[in-house]
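Homework-ish question, so no full write-ups if that breaks the rules, but can someone show me the predicted structure for this set?
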Amino acid sequence: MDIRMHTLSDKVPEPTLRRLPWYLSNAKLMRDKGETYVSSTQISRQINIDASQVAKDLSYVKISGRTRVGYEINSLIEVLESFLGFTDMHKAFLFGVGSLGGALLRDTGLQQFGLEIVGAFDINPELVGTEINGIPIYHSDEFEAKMKEASVNIGVLTVPISIAQEITDKMVAGGIKAVWNFTPFRIRVPEDIVVQNTSLYAHLAVMFNRLNFNQK
Amino acid sequence: MDIRMHTLSDKVPEPTLRRLPWYLSNAKLMRDKGETYVSSTQISRQINIDASQVAKDLSYVKISGRTRVGYEINSLIEVLESFLGFTDMHKAFLFGVGSLGGALLRDTGLQQFGLEIVGAFDINPELVGTEINGIPIYHSDEFEAKMKEASVNIGVLTVPISIAQEITDKMVAGGIKAVWNFTPFRIRVPEDIVVQNTSLYAHLAVMFNRLNFNQK
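A: Not a homework solution, just the prediction itself:
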């Protein structure tokens, strides 16, 4: 059973990319339970997603299953982690060491998924020159110089909304290629720049609304 | 111009709920610049979303604009904050004080958006009995007792994937009505329980993929 149908240059749909980490964590759980093979039907049953959808999603990944047996779990984990970019270390700078920015600097979990924040920028004199979790905090004016020293192409945006666009423009001018935007502000970037919006507050809004709806 | 078209009992579509915080932060910015009125056309232009979409989204919110002038900014901010649930304080418990859990306890920004974490649970003896940012950390066994003391209906899930389902089941049995799931694990809950998935790692996967795609 070789269900590979896509070439590597295909753009993977975002819903697929969001589901693949579910399959990955499921495979890790199965491995920890001592299993050696897993089929898309099993994954499907455990996480309640249509089996044909699981097979279709996995077809983007370079892995072949065996009829009736399924995927070898260790290979599946390895291939998924590599495909999702979790095995390469991607260097990033963080902009804005406020409450959320500081919290992200302290989250060592990001490193296990391929993101290494190598420096942070702020203008607060109490922060500049210090470090959090071993990550140095520089003055924002040093950004251009630091970009020349390190090969960084990801910027994590955790500034106040009033300067979100201004800092984004600076990042892009300095050579940042992808912005992980944690602000509730909709930033604008040139077409070739990747933006990933992760607004915790928008997620809260959805959760509160659903909760109120259920309680009516 | 009264564009209210929905009754309060309408279920607001998730994309709308995710866009409304953008309008809110835009309105705050305009207010800080000294503006008093804003039209959906202006919002539309600034955040690059179709004006008819903006008007449609805002029609879910109880606010009326005036022809040619638009919405009074202070009212718009007030109404949006209230509609999104940011002005009510929602109490929550956090489960799993690891790296991400600890980081969320330290993020005071959540309170400004209506989420107050009033306690956390873990089994690590080095953590139990201590507090982070003024939030007490209890042993997981104390959950049922603590639920009786406080009126909490939101659970923030930041445990390892191997126990994500087990802890979710416990939360639900204890009376939690909404789970904010930060794990990359797809948890299963009864139909009347709200789940909001916020997997930072899934967002990272999407960002890495797009970045690699652009760099080909």
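Now go work out the reasoning yourself. Hint: DSSP finds nine helices and nine strands in chain A.
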